[in-house]
C-alpha cells in the first residue's frame, strides 16, 4: 500500500551491473550466443536454398575441419589473424585507434616483394630472406610511425590518418605492379626467389611465429615497464603526464612496434605464403583483427580463441556457400554479421544483468 | 502368429529398401556408357561482377545441358589470385574431376595444382602458359572475341554516319572521334580495342580513337570519370573494356552512344546502348565436360569462335542506326567464310618511331615489321602496312617476343590473332589510335 501512496512503481525490468561473474557462466553465455547466432544464420541460409539445417552445420564444420589440408589452413589463417591482432593490440591498449592494419601489412608485403623482385637471381636466397625481413618490418614500422608522429606532435585524428594510409599503401602497390609487370596484365606472377623454406610443412612457420609473438606480447604488456606506460597512457593522458611519462614518446614507440608486427605479417604473406602481391593481399585482416582484439577484451591469450573462432566461421562459410550454391558473398556476409552481433550482445550480458520486477511475493511477506 | 507377422513386415521392408537401392543402381547403369563427371568452377568474384556472372551462368547452363545434377558440380566464388587459389583447387581436386578457374591471375596456382593432381583436368580462361608448360591435364581457353568487337565496331561506325554523316555518308574528322575506356595496357585489351576500331574504320574511313586506361580491371568510379573525360575531350561515341557500369552510365548521362562489353546494358541505358559483344563460355564448358565423360583429351589451347557459338553479339539497342542489322549480317557472313579478316594488314598502318618510347623506355611497336623493315632495327621513323609482327606468344616472363604471327590466306595478309595460343597477343598501337595511361 505504501508503494501506491508514493506513486512509485518499480520498472518491469532493470539493468544491473554484475559484480563478479563465474567463469562457467561466461562460457555458458558465450555458448548460447554463438549457437543462437549460428542457428539464426542457418535458418536464413535455408530461406535462400533447398538445403536444411543439418547441411548448414555439416558444411560449416567440413569447411574448417573437413580434411588435413583444411585443418592446417584453418590454423595458418588463424595465426595470421592472430599476428595482425597482436599488431593492433598495443595501440588499442593505449587507446590509439589504429585502423591502418591493412596498409601496414601491405607495405610490409610490398617491401619484401621488392627485395624478391630486384635481388632474386642476383643474390643468394639466404641473403635475400633476412633483407626481406628487415625491409618488411621497417616498412610496416614507418607506415605506422607517420600517423603516430602527427598524433603525438600535432594531435591529429589517428583513425582518419591511419585509414588514409591504407589507401596510399594500395595505390603504391598498384603503381609497383604497373612498373614491374611489363605485359600490362596488372597481375604479378609468383616470384621464385626469396621463398622462405618450409619447416616441417608449409603451414607451420606462421603458426609457430605468431604464437611466440602472442606470448611475448602478453609478457610485454603485463610485466614490462613499457607495457605499464601503455596502460597508463590509455587510461588517462593527464595521469601519464603527471607521473612523468613522456606521452609522445610512448605513442610513437608503441606504434612503431605495432607497425613492425604488421610488417612481419606482410613478410610472411610475401615470403612464405603468396610469393606475389596485389592490392587485396592484406585480405582485410587489418579490420578483422580489430574484431578479434575487441571481442577478446584486449587479452592476448583470449585473442587466440577469438582469432580461431573468426577464422573458423569464415572458412566454414566458404563451404556453406559451396553446398548452398550461393554464388554471391552477400548471404555469407549477413551470416557472419549475425554471429558477430550475437557475440557482441552477449558481452553486454556478461557485464550487466537484467532484474525483473518481483511483485506480490514481497508484499505478501510484508 | 503375431511374431510371424512382425518378421514378415521386417523382411518386406528390407526387401523394399533393397529393391529401391537396386533400382537406383540400375538407373545409373542404364545411362549411356559415359563416365560420371564432377565439375567445379573457381571464380575471382561472385555474381555481382559482370565478368564472373558470365562464367557462372554459362557453367550452370553447360552442366544442365550435359546432365550434371546439382550434386555433380560446384561453384566457389571470391577466390583471390594468390595461394588461396591453389589451396582451393587442391581441395576440390580430391572430389572433382574437372576444375576451371576464370581469372588471369589464377593461372600459376592452377598449374601448381595440376602438377600435384595429374588425374584431374584443370582448365583456365585467359591464361597463356598451357602450351609452354606442356602438362597433359592443364589447358587454356579463350575466344576470338576480336570478331565480336569488330562487329560491334561496325555498328558504332554506322551510328556515327547516322549522326554526323553528310549526303555521301562522309563524317568530318572532328565528328569521327571515338573514345575507349581500357583497363590495363595489356594485349587482351589492346587487341580488343584495335578490332573494335577496325570495325568502325571499315565504315568511317577517317575514324580516330582515343584510349585511356584506368589501370584496374574493375573500378566503377575511375571508369565513369574516364568516360566523362573522353566525352569532354570531343569523343562522339564511347566503348570500353572494363567490367563495371561506369562507362555506360556516364554515356547515358551525357546522351553519347555507347558500345558495351560482356552483356547488354540496355536496361539501365536505353537511350544510348547500341550493341555489346560477349564471350559465351557454355560451348567450352560443354566441350570439356564432354571430353572427360568420354575420356578424350582436352585441347591445350581452345579458341572459341562465332561458329562454336562462343562469340556473341547482343540484340541491337534502339539507339542503333537504321540498316545496322543488315550490315552486320553481311559482315558476319564474311567473317564466317574467311573473306573478311579482322586484322587484315591492308586496312591499317603502323608507325615505328625510335624517338617515341613507352614508360619502360621501349620503342613503341618495335616488334612490327613494316614493308620488310624491322622495327627493332630501324633508326628513322617508318610507317606503313605490316608485313610481319613478332609477338610474345610464349610469355616466358622475359617480355621478349619470339613468334611471327602475320600469315597469308589467299590474297589477304593478316595477323593471325589467337591462332598460336588462345589468349590474345596483338599489342601494337596502330595509326589512328592514341593511347594514354591515366
Main pleated sheet of chain B:
7 strands, mixed
Number of helices of chain A: 15
Mean pLDDT of chain A: 90
CATH topology name of one domain in chain B:
Rossmann fold
Radius of gyration of chain B using CA atoms only: 25 Å
User: Which of globular, elongated, flat, extended, rod-shaped describes the shape of chain B?
Assistant: globular
Strand percentage of chain B: 15-25%
Sum up the overall morphology of chain A in one term: globular
Euclidean distance between termini CA atoms of chain A? 11 Å
Please explain how this structure is put together.
Chain A folds into 2 domains: 89 residues, no CATH class; 242 residues, no CATH class. Chain A is built from 15 helices and 2 strands. In chain A, strands 1-2 form a two-stranded antiparallel sheet. Chain A starts with a helix and ends with a helix. The model of chain A has no long low-confidence stretch (mean pLDDT 90). Helices cover 35% and strands 20% of the residues of chain B. In chain B, the strands form 5 sheets. Chain B has a 7-stranded mixed beta sheet with strand order 12-10-9-8-6-7-21, sandwiched between helices. A 6-stranded parallel beta sheet of chain B has the order 2-1-3-4-5-11, sandwiched between helices. The N and C termini of chain B lie far apart (91 Å). The chains are: A mainly alpha (366), B alpha/beta (438). Chains A and B meet through helix 4, helix 7 and helix 13 of A and strand 2, helix 3 and helix 7 of B.
Amino acid at each position: 500500500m505504501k508503494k501506491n501512496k508514493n506513486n512509485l512503481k518499480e520498472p518491469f525490468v532493470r539493468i544491473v551491473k554484475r559484480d563478479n561473474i563465474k567463469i562457467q557462466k561466461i562460457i555458458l553465455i558465450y555458448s548460447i550466443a554463438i549457437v543462437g547466432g549460428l542457428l539464426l544464420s542457418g535458418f536464413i541460409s535455408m530461406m535462400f536454398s533447398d538445403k536444411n539445417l543439418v547441411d548448414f552445420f555439416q558444411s560449416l564444420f567440413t569447411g574448417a575441419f573437413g580434411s588435413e589440408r583444411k585443418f592446417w589452413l584453418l590454423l595458418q589463417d588463424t595465426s595470421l589473424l592472430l599476428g595482425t591482432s597482436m599488431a593492433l593490440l598495443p595501440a588499442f591498449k593505449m587507446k590509439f585507434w589504429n585502423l591502418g592494419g591493412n596498409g601496414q601489412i601491405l607495405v610490409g608485403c610490398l617491401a619484401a616483394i621488392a627485395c624478391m623482385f630486384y635481388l632474386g637471381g642476383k643474390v643468394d636466397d639466404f641473403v635475400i630472406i633476412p633483407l626481406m625481413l628487415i625491409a618488411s618490418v621497417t616498412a610496416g614500422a614507418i607506415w605506422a610511425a607517420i600517423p603516430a608522429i602527427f598524433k603525438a606532435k600535432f594531435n591529429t585524428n589517428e583513425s582518419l590518418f591511419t585509414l588514409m594510409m591504407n589507401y596510399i599503401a594500395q595505390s603504391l602497390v598498384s603503381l609497383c605492379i604497373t612498373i614491374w609487370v611489363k605485359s600490362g596484365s596488372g597481375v604479378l606472377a609468383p616470384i621464385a626467389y626469396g621463398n622462405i623454406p618450409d619447416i616441417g610443412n608449409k603451414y607451420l612457420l606462421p603458426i609457430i611465429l605468431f604464437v611466440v609473438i602472442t606470448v611475448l606480447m602478453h609478457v610485454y604488456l603485463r610485466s614490462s615497464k613499457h607495457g605499464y606506460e601503455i596502460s597508463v597512457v590509455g587510461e588517462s593522458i593527464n595521469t601519464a603526464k603527471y607521473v612523468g611519462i613522456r606521452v609522445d614518446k610512448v605513442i610513437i614507440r608503441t606504434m612503431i612496434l605495432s607497425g613492425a608486427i604488421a610488417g612481419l605479417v606482410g613478410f610472411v604473406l610475401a615470403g612464405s605464403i603468396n610469393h606475389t602481391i596485389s592490392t587485396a593481399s592484406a585480405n582485410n585482416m587489418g579490420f578483422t583483427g580489430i574484431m578479434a582484439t575487441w571481442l577478446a577484451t584486449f587479452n592476448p591469450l583470449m585473442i587466440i580463441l577469438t582469432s580461431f573462432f573468426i577464422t573458423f566461421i569464415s572458412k566454414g562459410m566458404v563451404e556453406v556457400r559451396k553446398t548452398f550454391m550461393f554464388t554471391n558473398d552477400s548471404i555469407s556476409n549477413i551470416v557472419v554479421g549475425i554471429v558477430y552481433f550475437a557475440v557482441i550482445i552477449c558481452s553486454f550480458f556478461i557485464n550487466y544483468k537484467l532484474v525483473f520486477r518481483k511483485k506480490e511475493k514481497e508484499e505478501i511477506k510484508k | 502368429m503375431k511374431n510371424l507377422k512382425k518378421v514378415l513386415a521386417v523382411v518386406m521392408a528390407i526387401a523394399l529398401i533393397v529393391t529401391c537401392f537396386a533400382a537406383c543402381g540400375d538407373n545409373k547403369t542404364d545411362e549411356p556408357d559415359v563416365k560420371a563427371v564432377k565439375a567445379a568452377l573457381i571464380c575471382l568474384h561472385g555474381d555481382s561482377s559482370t565478368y564472373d556472372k558470365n562464367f557462372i551462368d554459362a557453367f550452370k547452363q553447360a552442366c544442365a545441358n550435359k546432365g550434371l545434377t546439382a550434386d555433380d558440380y560446384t561453384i566457389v566464388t571470391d577466390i583471390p589470385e594468390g595461394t588461396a587459389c591453389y589451396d582451393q583447387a587442391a581441395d576440390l581436386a580430391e572430389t572433382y574431376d574437372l576444375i576451371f578457374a576464370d581469372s588471369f591471375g589464377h593461372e600459376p596456382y592452377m598449374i601448381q595444382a595440376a602438377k600435384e593432381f595429374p588425374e584431374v583436368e584443370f582448365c583456365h580462361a585467359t591464361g597463356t602458359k598451357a602450351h609452354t608448360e606442356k602438362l597433359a591435364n592443364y589447358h587454356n581457353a579463350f575466344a576470338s572475341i576480336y570478331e565480336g568487337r569488330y562487329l560491334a565496331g561496325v555498328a558504332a561506325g554506322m551510328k556515327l554516319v547516322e549522326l554526323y554523316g553528310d549526303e555521301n555518308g562522309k563524317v568530318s574528322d572532328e565528328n569521327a572521334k571515338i573514345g575507349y575506356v581500357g583497363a590495363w595496357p595489356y594485349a587482351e585489351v589492346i587487341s580488343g580495342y584495335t578490332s573494335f576500331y577496325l570495325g568502325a574504320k571499315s565504315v568511317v574511313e577517317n575514324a580516330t580513337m582515343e584510349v585511356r586506361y584506368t589501370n584496374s580491371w574493375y573500378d566503377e568510379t575511375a571508369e565513369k570519370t574516364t568516360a566523362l573525360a573522353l566525352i569532354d575531350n570531343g569523343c562522339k561515341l564511347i566503348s570500353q573494356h572494363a567490367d563495371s557500369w561506369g562507362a555506360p552510365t556516364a554515356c547515358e548521362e551525357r546522351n553519347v552512344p555507347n558500345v558495351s562489353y560482356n552483356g547488354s546494358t540496355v536496361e539501365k541505358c536505353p537511350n544510348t546502348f547500341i550493341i555489346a559483344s560477349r564471350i559465351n563460355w557454355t560451348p567450352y564448358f560443354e566441350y570439356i565436360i564432354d571430353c572427360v565423360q568420354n575420356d578424350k583429351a582436352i585441347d591445350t589451347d581452345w579458341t572459341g569462335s562465332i561458329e562454336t557459338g562462343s562469340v556473341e553479339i547482343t540484340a541491337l539497342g534502339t539507339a542503333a542506326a537504321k540498316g545496322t542489322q543488315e550490315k552486320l549480317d553481311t559482315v558476319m557472313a564474311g567473317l564466317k567464310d574467311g573473306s573478311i579478316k579482322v586484322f587484315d594488314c591492308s586496312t591499317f598502318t603502323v608507325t615505328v618511331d625510335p624517338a617515341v618510347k613507352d614508360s619502360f623506355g621501349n620503342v613503341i611497336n618495335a616488334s612490327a615489321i613494316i614493308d620488310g623493315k624491322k622495327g627493332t632495327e630501324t633508326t628513322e621513323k617508318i610507317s606503313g602496312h605490316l608485313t610481319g609482327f613478332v609477338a610474345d606468344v610464349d610469355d616466358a616472363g622475359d617480355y621478349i617476343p619470339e613468334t611471327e604471327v602475320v600469315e597469308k590466306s589467299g590474297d589477304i595478309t593478316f595477323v593471325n590473332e589467337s591462332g598460336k595460343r588462345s589468349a590474345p597477343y596483338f599489342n601494337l598501337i596502330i595509326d589512328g589510335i592514341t593511347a594514354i595511361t591515366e
